[in-house]
Amino acid sequence: MLKTLFSAILLWPAASLADDSNQRFEDCLEVALNARDGQVVKVELKLENEREVYEFDIRGIDGKDWDVECLKSSAELIELEQEVNHPNHPLFKRNFNVNEEEARDIALKLYPGEIIEVEYEIESDGKSSYEFDIDTLEGSEIKIEIDAATGKVVETNKELWQVGLE
After folding, report:
1. Which CATH architecture has domain 1-81?
2. What is the pLDDT of residues 64-94, one digit of tens each?
3. What is the spatial distance between Cα 92 and Cα 80, in angstroms, rounded to a whole number?
4. Is 17 helix (H, G, I), strand (E, B) or coil?
5. N or C: at which end does the chain have fewer Cβ atoms within 10 angstroms?
6. Mind listing the pLDDT tens digit for each residue in 91-138?
7. What are the residue ranges spanned by the domains of the chain?
């Protein structure tokens, strides 16, 4: 699967990977798999704070799902989050004051469009957050993360491309 995924990325026209970008991708892939051993099921390149970041979704050998982010320019691990399958998951609920409908409203007021994916994440500090992928009315895809305890925006970034499972 990993070879197939990497081959798909190399053939992805929007990615326009040059030789040094191939090496950066491979370096980040190694960093991600060293952080969480398992199978990469999705890779995204996104623009976060004007920096290109690879996000690897890894189905860990521990049976858990992980999001591992790596800064493209330096192959530095910058974020590690556990994904859970539902907002009623015990890890998610322990830091939960804002329900999903409220979080959706916050996200869509900032970025009108259609929510195409929702993830329930446990941050490295134990906080819970909703991550929404929104196809905006302007035609771009925005990822916005909302703190499940406060309703505040944790981060916003623009997805440049994605390969793998939705």
Report:
1. Roll (3.10)
2. 999 999 999 999 999 999 999 999 999 999 9
3. 15
4. coil
5. C
6. 999 999 999 999 999 999 999 999 999 999 999 999 999 999 999 999
7. 1-81, 85-159
